[in-house]
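USER: Study each token:
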Amino acid sequence: MTRLSHLLKTSNACLLSAIVLTLVVGSLGFPMSAACQSVTGQEYNVKIGFIYNFINFVSWPDGVFDDPSQPITLCLISNEAPSEVLYKLDGKSVKGRRIQVVPYNGGLCLPQSHVLFFATQDVTLIQKVLGLARGLGILSIGEVEGFIRLGGVINFFQESNRLRFKINVEAAKREGLKMSSQLLRSAKIVGKMGE
């Protein structure tokens, strides 16, 4: 069935993240040191590298893509100006597919979306969109504290002034998403694995 029819606490952790991000961040034109810098004004530039890698290290369920040339659509949900830097992912390639970044348009983007990035602190909007996207096989990524509790798959957070991420393995399983072991080793795991 097609989708349309279904409507780093220590320096070692920082080094591991740098290894995972080496090719991606470098290919996007950002210095590798940015992945291990404190989260400052470059926060969204660093998040681009992370999001690109999330896409690279996640497998979607069968039927999500209508054909091998269909782009990976990233729907950007934001009401904050700094997040516009994420449009730099538009046109990049990963896994032989082009990334297409589209703005959230009241839910109309959900049937063709594969990734949702919530660059907003608006919990009401997040809950609404996650509810609409539930069961569609979409990788949801957020930055608001508690995004995992709201049902999101990946949640950015800061630890020791570094950008890190949590993965809700139960939400990923619910969406039919398979995470690579490399990605899981770099994350703080929430939920039960192996079920």
